[in-house]
Write a structure and sequence with these properties.
- With 172 residues, this protein is mostly beta strands.
- The two termini are 19 Å apart.
């Protein structure tokens, strides 16, 4: 039986508690579908990705975040988690463009090492129930979920390193 890539990459532990995916989440950058463990360079991340949420109930709303749990470097992640983007009130069955961008997209640009970039989709209790944090750095997906009574519905991560970087991420 194959292990969950979110567990293998320590996303489950460093960023999220264990959860069961409950809704399809599709993420594309420049028409490239992002799967767990994909590798992207900052130049491919210049513009917001296209995000599509599955389901069939327009009365259900979601919040999407993009965080970097390895900021400023994987060996010293003292800014964990850096919040790159937050969109709230996204109706089920639609795209992120139908939500409210409450923390503007900031392109990931790692300076050192290979960073895991994690998209988390949360199911909200209702419209207008989620509010942005005061700061982008030291954001915590776990704390945020507790504060706003959110359930993780889906998550996808990719790896990113500076344009001239080489090598792959290793997990012990």
């Amino acid at each position: 039986m194959a292990q969950d890539p979110l567990v293998l990459a320590h996303v489950i532990r460093d960023v999220l508690e264990p959860f069961r995916t409950s809704i399809p989440l599709r993420i594309t950058y420049n028409n490239r579908l992002i799967l767990n463990g994909s590798e992207l360079r900052p130049s491919a991340l210049a513009t917001r990705p296209k995000i599509e949420i599955g389901g069939n109930d327009l009365r259900t709303f979601y919040t999407l975040v993009l965080v970097d749990p390895d900021a400023p470097s994987p060996s010293n992640p003292n800014l964990r988690e850096f919040l790159h983007w937050m969109v709230t009130d996204i109706p089920e069955t639609t795209a992120v463009t139908y939500g409210q961008e409450v923390v503007y997209y900031e392109r990931p640009e790692p300076r050192s090492g290979i960073h895991r970039m994690v998209f988390v989709l949360y199911r909200q209790l209702g419209r207008g129930t989620v509010f942005p944090p005061d700061m982008r750095y030291n954001f915590s997906c776990k704390t945020f979920a507790r504060q706003h009574h959110l359930d993780v519905a889906a998550a996808i991560y990719f790896n990113c390193q500076r344009e001239s970087g080489s090598g792959g991420r290793r997990f012990c």
